[in-house]
Automatic annotation (TrEMBL):
Keywords: Cell membrane, Membrane, Transmembrane, Transmembrane helix, Transport. It comes from Shinella lacus. The keyword Protein transport does not apply. InterPro entries: ABC_transporter_permease (IPR051393), MetI-like (IPR000515), MetI-like_sf (IPR035906). Coiled coil: none annotated. This is Sugar ABC transporter permease. The lineage of its organism: Bacteria, Pseudomonadati, Pseudomonadota, Alphaproteobacteria, Hyphomicrobiales.
Amino acid sequence: MPHRAFFAFIMPSLVAMLLFIALPIISVAVQSFYVQHERVVTEVETCTPFAGCTKETRVDAEATEKLRNEEPLGRFNGFGTYLDRNHLAVSEIGAILSDNAGFKDAAARIYNLPFYRALAFTLTYTFVVTPFAMLLGFCIALGVDAIPPFYKGPVIFFSLLPMIVTPLVGALIVYWMASSQGILGATLQTLLNDPTLSLKSSAAMTWITLLVYGIWHNAPFSFVVFYAGLQTVPHDTLESAMIDGANRWERIRFVVIPHLMPLATFVGLVQLMDNFRVFEPIVGFSAEANATSLSWSIFNDLRGQVDQLFGSAAATSMLTIVGVIILLSPVLVRTWRDFNRR
């Protein structure tokens, strides 16, 4: 393709990426270096005939509004927001590492810091949900591919229901089912003979519930992609393997899985990005007390009615973007190397 035709072909996509991806990221990066202006405080002296004169401190709303209008981005703070206690907490980490009662104590104190607490759950959710959702989706695809054609339509429909349901609605449904009055919560109480048992009573149970929900919700996407890939597996190769005496597991291992590896890479990339920004399950389960994520931290900074922490939310957003880049780098490098070998 001539260079002129190539650039004319991709120019609309480049313009859209610049306007809707690059520029917003740049604006967020700039905002992360600023913090909100502090309120202008003035000291007012009030005198009365009987009580005499007293001094009190008041917020000068007019001066504060004027300052914010003159400098809408806020006060320049450099990397201060990134290094404060709510983010990387560099000084707090240094203090913990220099004075602790052992590894367990240091880990517990670091976990209590807001950013690292959110990061811990985000990484756990990403690295647990992604492989198990892919495995479950692959197993469903194999099962659906093996059933008679008459039953495939209904089975595919029900298999896609978790993905069709809005994530927040799905999380609310599971939340109600897991409550003490719900079918799951009441069943566990009956089976374990513990009327006080609650899936939301501890951090461990909350994490397990969120992880199981994540696998249930993400598996249909893997199923759709893998099922489509199974339709492209060469039948001649499968028949040759059967003639050579390969059983079903051997055919899957040596024929089907190698054929689906490019699709697995694609699914893994999408699932990693999607799971790293986990948000809806935490809100739906009202799990903030036991589990938070980086996306929830951004939401928490922005939901204030008066002083919204734009700088803090922007810094968390940039750290999230850096985390996604780090997560995807090994897969992208491997894909690029495989492409160059071909």
